[in-house]
């Protein structure tokens, strides 16, 4: 049985002041303190809460059965993605939370925070710390530096140390779902982590128009949809899903840049997606499939495991997709 839906956050809407232009994190080191002044919460959810289209719902990620998924294809529901309740819709769709670049984070800088009462700690206070930790982890990823629990506690968590497990978990989920970055513990005794792209993918999208912010999360999303739609999906269906999370062809996005360029140019040129005209279509229509690099670097079983880990279920809970993933493993052997 899938576990209960967890509270996740990635970019709270409504509390933040919009900035006119997203900044290039590669152009200068990230200032955690300055970034915090421009957005009071970077994490108020995990993956988009309406990860569906009118003809296809991402049933797995909404903790539903494959039977529910099949039924949903004949209706127009609005299902949630990977176990998310009020997920990372805000992170992905809200342009008001943007990353700024200035000076390096001030390690161990002072804080005017008053020690909060554990029983009265508000959602907003947790959001702020998750926000700060996500930005700190992005900085560490960009600098290709490991991060330790001690660093996170002293530089970011500070007076909220009793809430570190919750803050750390939600920040880690945000990194994984929005940016496609995993935190891997390499020294358990010292709680030291490295940040790497999810699913062993070797491309993080940081050489595209919006430099400095990893974009593997969107690639994983598209690969997952293709797999669950029978390994081929129409371009219209892809945009039906992406429109539901605030991504529109031709509209600049503060994390992903221009989505059509990223998906149909960059992901295709990098070999992760195949973009082809539907045979005999008039006027021409197009569809997406996995590209050779996707097959070389990841597997359907890894995709399914990734999604069910987030969902809190087991890959075998989805026998049709699990059987296909097993066939894929056998063909590769």
What does this structure look like?
The chain is mainly α and 333 residues long. It has helices at 32-38, 66-72, 89-93, 123-142, 149-157, 164-179, 216-228, 235-243, 259-269, 292-297, 300-311, 319-332; strands at residues 147-148, 181-187, 192-197, 233-234, 273-277, 286-290. The chain has two domains: 32-47 and 85-200, Arc Repressor Mutant, subunit A (Orthogonal Bundle); 209-332, Orthogonal Bundle (Arc Repressor Mutant, subunit A), CATH 1.10.10. The chain is built from twelve helices and six strands. The strands form two sheets. The chain has a three-stranded antiparallel sheet with strand order 1-3-2. Helix 7 (216-228) crosses helix 11.
What structural category arises from helix and sheet content? Answer: mainly alpha
Largest sheet: 3 strands, antiparallel
What letter string, H or E per element, gives the SSE order?
HHHHEHHEEHEHHEEHHH
Low-confidence stretches: 1-64, 68-91, 93-115
CATH superfamily of the largest domain: MAGE homology domain, winged helix WH1 motif
CATH-assigned fold name of the largest domain: Arc Repressor Mutant, subunit A
Tally the helices. 12
**Beta strand %:** 5-15%
The CATH class of the largest domain turns out to be Mainly Alpha
Compute the CA-based radius of gyration.
20 Å
């Amino acid at each position: 049985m899938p576990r209960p839906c967890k509270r996740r956050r990635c970019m709270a809407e409504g509390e933040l002041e919009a900035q006119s232009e997203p900044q290039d994190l590669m152009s200068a080191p990230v200032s955690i303190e300055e970034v915090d002044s421009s957005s009071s919460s970077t994490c108020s959810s995990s993956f988009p809460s309406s990860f569906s289209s009118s003809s296809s719902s991402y049933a797995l990620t909404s903790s539903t059965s494959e039977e529910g998924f099949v039924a949903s294809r004949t209706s127009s529901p609005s299902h949630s993605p990977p176990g998310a309740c009020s997920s990372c819709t805000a992170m992905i769709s809200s342009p008001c939370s943007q990353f700024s670049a200035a000076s390096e984070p001030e390690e161990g800088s002072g804080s005017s925070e008053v020690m909060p009462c554990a029983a009265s700690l508000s959602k907003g206070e947790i959001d702020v710390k998750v926000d700060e930790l996500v930005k700190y982890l992005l900085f560490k990823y960009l600098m290709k530096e490991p991060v330790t629990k001690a660093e996170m506690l002293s530089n970011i968590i500070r007076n909220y140390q009793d809430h570190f497990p919750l803050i750390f978990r939600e920040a880690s989920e945000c990194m994984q779902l929005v940016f496609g970055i995993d935190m891997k513990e390499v020294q358990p005794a010292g709680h030291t982590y490295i940040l790497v792209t999810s699913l062993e993918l070797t491309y993080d999208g940081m050489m595209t128009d919006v430099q400095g912010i990893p974009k593997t999360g969107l690639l994983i999303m598209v690969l997952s949809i293709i797999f669950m739609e029978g390994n081929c999906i129409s371009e219209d269906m892809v945009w039906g899903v992406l429109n539901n999370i605030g991504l529109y062809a031709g509209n600049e996005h503060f994390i992903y840049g221009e989505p059509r360029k990223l998906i149909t140019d960059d992901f295709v040129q990098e070999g992760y997606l195949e973009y082809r005209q539907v045979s005999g279509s008039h006027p021409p229509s197009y569809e997406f499939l996995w590209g050779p690099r996707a097959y070389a670097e990841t597997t359907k079983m890894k995709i399914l495991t990734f999604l069910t880990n987030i969902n809190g279920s087991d890959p075998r809970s989805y026998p049709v997709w699990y059987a296909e993933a097993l066939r894929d493993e056998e063909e590769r052997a």
